[in-house]
Amino acid sequence: MQWLPIARDAEVSTRPLAVTADGVPLMVYRPEPDADPVVFADRCPHRLVPLSAAVVEDGRLRCAYHGWEFDASGACVTVPSQGSIPPRASLPPGPPIKIFDGTIHVLAAGLPAPDPTELLTNEDPALRHGWHPVGLATERLDEVQLLGETFRLAESRTQERWGMIWLAPDEPKVGLFTDPDADDRDYVGAWLPPARTPASAGLVADNFLDVAHFPFVHAKTFGAAEEKTVPRYEVSTEPYGCRSVQEQWFDNPEDPGVLAGIRPVRQRRRATYVYRAPFQLLLRLEELDAGAVKTILFFAQPESATSTRIYTKMLFHGIGGVPDPSAEVVAGEVAFEEAVLAEDLELQQRLRITGLPLRMRDELHVRADLLGVHLRRILADFRS
Ligand code: FES
Ligand SMILES: [Fe+2]
């Protein structure tokens, strides 16, 4: 019997620790300060996010992404986006453990199965057949990184749209989507500074389409007041893309109508998500009571296997109760959106998976994940 050391007994606490045994990612923690250590594979069955990023509360592990909770036996006890717990939601048992010489060891024969390999990475050759954002027009770049290669703009197939340069290495399968708001002179537009993340563009797109993570990942910005339950919604498909309209409750303390006592702070919002392969995304938020509209254009550039560049453009109409928001209001909105994006990037830093899983059985999709399921199907189709 082969026992592999993973951590000193004394360094393991109620704060989960990421470790490896024989190259297999594991996590170890104590459900209570004096309890025996517990070891599981370092991935949540839902979206494979590391459970080493989870927090322990009342003896339960709470996943950092969507707040699913697991007890010390691995049983799933809460799925906040819906009331019920789907079968297969529990964690597979971790390897047997033994403590000797002050060190926790795991049984080599009991190690969990490796991560799935059917992943869409940033260097997938199929991505050559798509339009990719490669920089803001104002950056005046000569060369860009895309799909692990360097492209000279002067020698490539390019076009300009929304103030950005787009590049398609090979004949693109589908064009850029249209966004009526961007051409509407009533809208005020503003770019966020482009950001970088080590997560693959597929995972970044999945994160953008996901609503169920708001209360957990965005607790410090806007998430704390968000509904945890995600109402049923529908998704309609388009060529290499999809669209979904969802109505949500949210708190709108900045609405002048609230300050004037005309409207309650709890209001309705209509969120329209638009996705087009490979990584074009749009979210249009209409405040149904206050009448303001905010559109977020969101694009990901798969630069290399370990780097994705993110472009976010915001378009406003009626924010702050005036048709033309002032520069100050726009700057405030941009700063807020940057703080929101930073929360997503923080979790993405911790991902151990190198691409978006495309096989349905490798993750555990629930009702709230309908958009993510469409994303995976569309990208699998784009790749074939
Ligand atoms: S709850 Fe863990 S990834 Fe969604
Ligand atoms: Fe987010």
UniProtKB/TrEMBL annotation:
It is found in: Membrane. Keywords: 2Fe-2S, Iron, Iron-sulfur, Membrane, Metal-binding, Oxidoreductase, Transmembrane, Transmembrane helix. Residues 3-106 form the Rieske domain. It comes from the Bacteria. GO terms for molecular function: 2 iron, 2 sulfur cluster binding; metal ion binding; monooxygenase activity; oxidoreductase activity, acting on paired donors, with incorporation or reduction of molecular oxygen. PANTHER family: CHOLESTEROL 7-DESATURASE NVD, IRON-SULFUR DOMAIN CONTAINING PROTEIN. This is Rieske domain-containing protein. It comes from Actinoplanes awajinensis subsp. mycoplanecinus.
